[in-house]
Design a protein that fits this description.
The protein is of the alpha/beta class. The protein is built from nine helices and 13 strands.
Length: about 260
């Protein structure tokens, strides 16, 4: 009798273990307010939206911080489901799937007021040919900057370009306005007024998940993500996350 009970217990335990879902793995990097790492806790607009979506699916998520290029390779190999936040490009679409739009992306050129006391307006990228531009390796604009013949010094982080602007080693850098505002506040809290953004965005696009083509059940997971994303946009959860991080409504992406 004891042997029968033991066999039943082992069988039930096996079923429970085999049906248990492993956490869905995401890789990302610090990109406040989109992604924030604070005391080993991952938060921000994007992680909070992802958590809200997979909570409805009763699936746990795991966030791993990696440099952007390394994260892309992790996802490409199928070792993680997705990375974020990313824009769709023709080249990326050859290697990855993408989710529906999550948040608007409005990058603007940042400059130091001392260099342009009357402000700065522009129409086309070639208007920047006479200036030194600070760029970040791997960002969306590398090809367009090269095509426009711009003089660009590439570094690995936006914060480096903020510092070079302050030291007048470059004339402009291009980054999302939300990101730039936070970086300036962190690095130069008493000199925020020394900087301004050009009013015209360099582009208008949307951030999405960039998803592995090799991750298990990937198409099903993307479909579920997109469906729940639409749901939280309609029930107020999405809007509450934006309000939590004090992000203007103009960044809310609806289809």
């Amino acid at each position: 009798m004891k042997q029968v009970i033991l066999v039943i217990f082992v069988f039930i335990n096996f079923l429970h273990t085999s049906n248990a879902r492993e956490p869905i793995v995401f890789v990302t990097n610090d990109y406040e307010p989109y992604v924030i790492e604070e005391n080993s806790v991952v938060k921000g607009i994007f992680p909070d939206i992802i958590r809200a979506i997979f909570h409805e699916l009763n699936i746990e998520v795991e966030f791993r911080f990696q440099p952007w290029k390394r994260g892309e390779m992790t996802v490409k190999k199928g070792e993680a489901f997705a990375t974020f936040p990313y824009l769709i490009t023709e080249q990326r679409s050859e290697d990855f799937y993408f989710s529906d739009p999550v948040i608007y992306f409005l990058p603007k050129f940042l400059y130091k007021n001392k260099k342009f006391p009357s402000g700065f307006t522009w129409e086309k990228l070639s208007d920047f040919q006479q200036y030194r531009i600070g760029g970040v390796q791997g960002y969306w604009y590398q090809n367009s900057f090269q095509t426009a013949g711009l003089n660009v010094n590439y570094v690995t982080r936006d914060i480096q370009n903020i510092k070079m602007l302050m030291n007048e080693r470059i004339h402009f850098t291009l980054l999302p306005e939300l990101v730039g505002q936070i970086l300036i506040q962190k690095v130069y809290p008493n000199q925020v007024s020394a900087f301004s953004f050009a009013k015209k965005p360099e582009s208008i696009d949307t951030f999405r998940l960039m998803v592995s083509r090799k991750y298990p059940n990937v198409k099903e997971l993307i479909e579920k993500f997109n469906k729940r994303l639409r749901k939280i946009k309609s029930n107020g959860t999405y809007q509450n996350i934006f309000q939590k991080y004090e992000v203007p409504k103009e960044y809310e992406a609806y289809q």
